[in-house]
Write a structure and sequence with these properties.
The protein has about 425 residues and is an alpha+beta fold. It contains 11 helices and 21 strands.
Length: about 425
């Protein structure tokens, strides 16, 4: 067989049909998998209407007073804009040529490379879903030459060897360091929660970087107003403890129904905090049915519940509904309006729980989430100045919520 662009394109088309794409992206990524999907995101923006007031007025006995006091039903439209998350994978012409006479070796090599690219981009989606959209993946605890210890060592699961990192101020989304220099992660200690760099952190980040500064992937930092919400506007953006004067064009400080609910459960057992958080959402009319927490919090919850533990499945949701071949095991709590499945998600912050009414959320994308860039009809391209081939992936879209007040962010110990 000849390894032409036509052969490569045909192989990719066969390998990454809808079902296969779900297997490559949703497995072991419960937050990404559980979000309802809409693949028709297009145009400059997508209005997300939210009703936050029924309209007031009325009178117990005087009709004229009721007429005089009437007010409109209150609606807002979030004008959702899309973001782009990219990943590029390359493989040499030499490696393809050596598999010319072995069709299986050719397919395996191609699939391994592209699967890894889909996995890396899907990990990015999973990592950004519970966060604020600023691009922050964690904060600095301490630095010593080439070793950086994260303030929350459990955040280490969102970092990978090879990442190019920059730092910002202690305010999430504020300006990045003036030097904007990037450090390359050369090693990750997932037990100690440390990142090793190719150069001394304190030398490269000479602004200087300090403890509690936020950490971003290079090119994916909000940087004040110059790159507003560069990543997915995740749960931490839609459920904001302070609100936002202009979140997708809406002043969410007007009413908590526009900015979501918060419950401080830091002094409680995990089980108590989650039950109270579900009650807060239910009080606002929500029907929470799923909660995402970090594995360390999930471990505490299992110990607290003990013999009372029951489990149920959370099915992955593709663009056409549930996918029977991918499911996640959830510990069931008795919520105020029905069972709540508590799911362990390793890319979730360890100090947060996200108590969600899943029907109010949608992960909106332009085409598949993610997809191979093929606007010119090519799924794979020959290198312009090197003996290699390249496959480009992208997620174009954003997360939306049509009833933030039906959801609760929970502060955990």
């Amino acid at each position: 067989m000849a390894n032409t662009l036509t052969t490569l394109d045909a192989a990719l088309k066969q390998l990454y049909r809808a079902k296969n794409l779900g297997d490559a992206t949703y497995k072991r990524r419960p937050m990404f998998a559980a979000m309802p999907k809409f693949e028709g995101f297009g145009g400059r923006n997508m209005p997300v209407p939210v009703k936050y007031g029924q309209g007031v007025g009325g009178s117990g006995s005087v009709f004229a007073t009721a007429q005089a006091n009437v007010s409109a039903v209150l609606y807002e439209d979030f004008l959702l804009t899309g973001i782009n998350l990219y990943h590029v994978t390359q493989f040499t012409g030499e490696s393809l040529d050596y598999s010319t006479n072995d069709a299986m070796a050719f397919v395996r090599g191609l699939k391994t490379k592209v699967d890894s690219a889909f996995g890396a981009l899907s990990d990015a989606i999973e990592s950004y879903l519970p966060r604020t959209g600023s691009g922050s993946l964690g904060t600095i605890g301490s630095m010593s030459t080439t070793t950086l210890t994260l303030a929350d060592t459990d955040d280490v699961q969102v970092f990978e060897v090879g990442m190019e990192l920059v730092h910002g101020t202690p305010t999430d989304g504020d300006t990045i360091g003036s030097s904007a220099a990037e450090n390359t992660v050369t090693a990750v200690d997932r037990t100690a929660g440390t990142l090793t760099s190719d150069a001394a952190w304190t030398t490269t980040w000479s602004d200087p970087a300090i403890a509690t500064d936020h950490i971003y992937v290079g090119g994916t930092a909000q940087n004040g107003t110059s790159n507003a919400l560069p990543t997915i506007a995740g749960f931490g953006a839609w459920i904001s403890s302070a609100g936002d004067s202009s979140f997708f064009g809406v002043d969410t400080t007007v009413d908590d129904r526009l900015s979501g609910n918060w419950h401080d459960g830091s002094a409680q057992l995990v089980e108590e905090a989650l039950i109270d958080g579900a009650s807060v959402a239910a009080a606002e009319g929500g029907a929470p049915d799923v909660c995402f927490i970090h594995p360390t919090s999930h471990r505490k919850l299992v110990k607290e519940v003990g013999s009372r533990t029951t489990y149920d499945k959370l099915m992955a949701k593709g663009p056409k509904g549930e996918m029977a071949n991918i499911a996640f095991r959830g510990l069931v709590l008795d919520g105020p309006l029905g069972p709540v499945k508590v799911i362990s998600a390793n890319k979730c912050q360890s100090t947060r729980g996200w108590m969600l009414d899943s029907e109010t959320w949608s992960l909106n994308s332009n085409g598949s989430a993610p997809k191979i860039i093929s606007n010119d009809g090519l799924r794979i391209r020959a290198g312009a100045s090197a003996d290699n081939f390249e496959c480009r992936l992208v997620f174009r879209g954003n997360l939306s919520c049509n009833a933030p007040g039906h959801n609760t962010g929970i502060v955990l110990a």
